[in-house]
Specification:
The chain is an alpha/beta fold and 347 residues long. It has 12 helices and 16 strands. The protein has helices at residues 2-7, 64-75, 93-96, 99-106, 114-125, 132-141, 146-155, 158-162, 234-246, 265-289, 296-303, 310-329; strands spanning 10-11, 23-26, 29-35, 42-50, 53-57, 83-87, 109-112, 171-172, 178-181, 184-191, 198-203, 208-212, 253-256, 262-263, 334-337, 343-346. The protein is globular.
Length: 347
């Protein structure tokens, strides 16, 4: 069943555009791919024609490599065509990294949700529970070994590496807002579970969706617990958020942040729902089979059966806590505080 579901997701273009070049994927909408210094090595950005200017959705990681690509574009494909509007789908570095830099350069506004704007500043400033020390404490509480905690601490504030500065001001987007980019009007669809208040953009008349990280063609979106909200159930939030995408036209061309544009939105949402249900069942079975209550660190190998680098281990811990919290919050598991303060779960 799962194979037929995955086959129903048709990727429209396998080969991405070369660096610093644009590929038109719908009339007036262009695909731009930028590099990322991670195992996930690219992010897709979208440019919309606005006559003698362009609108931009997402900005790329804020490092010298991406900025060199931007400079090449400004001297080449975008010469004489300024960026007039910027939309940031969410606060993650590959999306918002260059927003402040580009907005300053072109004197344009940055449209984003308030939660993403505030979270970006909180991570940069390490306010409340948004700093690396808070992440370290959360993962320690969930049983991560000290060698991995030390590696995490040695990394410092990795958010600042990809977001050297965040916009000082923004134009607020909320769910249901209509945004004019180019000749089309796009509707904001808020999404939860991946980031605080992700904004996707749907244009039903043209059957287009800029899905950001909420819908990706091959990989499942990272759904993690973060230290400021340690008891959160982002899996439930994410699954609830998918309902809005199920209401879109079946022939919608989805423009995702990673991978290639695709059609088959309903099959993809069904696959994601099945994926999370399978993961939760596997995790529940692992808890039921264990003689002792298990921590999130204990169950990382249940969810991820491959070697993990530091960045991947960091996301894997967040995902493991998210899935355990979901079992706990939906009363399929109990959460136990061990004598040493570690959180463990039992079926
Ligand atoms: Zn993201």
């Amino acid at each position: 069943m799962n194979d037929s579901l995955s086959r129903a997701v048709l990727e429209v273009a396998d080969a991405p555009p070369a660096a610093a070049t644009l590929r038109e994927v719908a009339p007036g909408v262009h695909w731009l791919r930028m590099p990322l210094p991670f195992a996930l090595d690219h992010v897709n950005l979208w440019l919309v024609d606005e006559g003698d200017a362009v609108a931009l959705v997402d900005c790329g990681y804020g490092d010298a490599t991406t900025r060199a690509h931007w400079e090449a574009l400004f001297a080449g494909a975008l010469a004489g065509r300024p960026i007039r509007h910027i939309v940031a789908t969410h606060c993650h570095p590959d999306h918002v990294g260059n927003a402040a830099w580009l907005a300053e350069r072109f004197g344009c506004d940055v449209m984003m949700t308030q939660s993403e704007f505030l979270a970006s500043h909180a991570m940069l400033g390490e306010h409340a529970g948004y700093g690396p020390a808070d992440t370290r404490a959360l993962f320690a509480r969930h049983g991560l070994a000290s060698e991995h905690l030390d590696a995490l601490a040695a990394r410092g504030n990795s958010y600042r590496k990809g977001v050297p500065q965040a916009p000082r001001a923004f134009s607020r987007l909320i769910h249901g807002d209509r945004v004019k980019l180019g000749e089309r009007t796009w509707r904001v669809i808020a999404g939860y579970g991946h980031s605080p208040e992700h904004a996707a953009l749907a244009c039903e008349d043209s059957a287009l969706l800029v899905s950001g990280d909420m819908l990706l063609p091959r990989i499942s979106t990272n759904v993690s617990v973060w230290p400021a909200e340690p008891d959160a159930d982002p899996v439930a939030r994410f699954l609830d958020s998918l309902t809005a995408f199920e209401a879109l036209p079946p022939d919608t061309l989805v423009l995702p942040s990673h991978g290639a544009p695709f059609r088959g939105i309903h099959a993809r949402v069904a696959r994601l729902r099945a994926h999370h249900a399978e993961r939760l069942d596997e995790l529940h079975a692992a808890l039921a089979a264990a003689k002792q209550p298990r921590s999130a660190a204990d169950v990382v190998p249940v969810l991820f059966r491959r070697p993990l680098d530091l960045q991947q281990r960091f996301f894997a811990m967040g995902e493991a806590i998210a899935h355990l919290n979901h079992l706990w919050q939906s009363q399929r598991a109990r959460r136990i505080v061990a004598d040493d303060g570690t959180l463990r779960f039992a079926a």
